[in-house]
Amino acid sequence: MKPDEEAGTFSETMEFPEALTAIGNLLLLVWVILDGYGIGLINVGYGVLFLIIALIVVYVVLKFVGCLRPCYHCKRCTRGFGRMAALYFGKRSLKDPKETYGVPAAIFFYTFIGPFPAAILLANTLSAFSVAKIAVLVPILVLSVYSGLTWLPAQKK
User: Which of 8, 46, 50, 65 is the most buried (most CB within 10 A)?
Assistant: First the structure.
């Protein structure tokens, strides 16, 4: 623990594993691309627009918001990429929503790239079935469910 001179409190130093940072951000990029492609199967213009907005929201806004804390809180500064991977795919102990994103922001970002595009794609698939839509919907749902499950508290043995 290191003292936070401004707040007069102690803050835990966080270390984001390299594998989580690399694989988590790759999965996050794949997730965003799948979302854009899935919406693009419904309407190409909306798909491209969603992809552009999602890339900006995740890799500019979320990265910036996640990196608002001073670098001494991260054992090795990841410029926000470690926090992004931890937010979506890290174990519960790596999530720090109180001091970075805030719970409402974390829920917004999760919903924006998870349940929102999945619901749109599911509703459209029910009205105009396509194997391609199902092939995109399934991985989006798997990523959404897995990411949501990482927010559950650790089980005590």
Answer: 50
Domain locations in the chain as residue ranges: 2-149
Place of tokens 């917004």: 108
pLDDT tens for residues 84-137? Answer: 888 888 877 666 656 556 677 778 889 999 999 999 999 999 999 999 999 999
Name the DSSP class of 67: T
The answer to whether the beta carbons of residues 157 and 119 sit under 8 Å apart is: no
Structure tokens at 114: 């998870």
CB neighbours of residue 9 within 10 Å: 9
Q: How far is 127 from 144, CA to CA, in rounded Å?
A: 22
pTM to 2 decimal places = 0.80
Strand partners, 2: 11
Residue 53 has which token pair? 């907005």
Alpha-carbon torsion, ordered 8, 80, 77, 26, to 10 deg: 150
Helix (H, G, I), strand (E, B) or coil at 2: strand
State the Cα–Cα distance between residues 118 and 34, nearest whole angstrom.
10
Distances (CA, A) of 144 to 45, 75, 140, 151: 24, 28, 6, 12
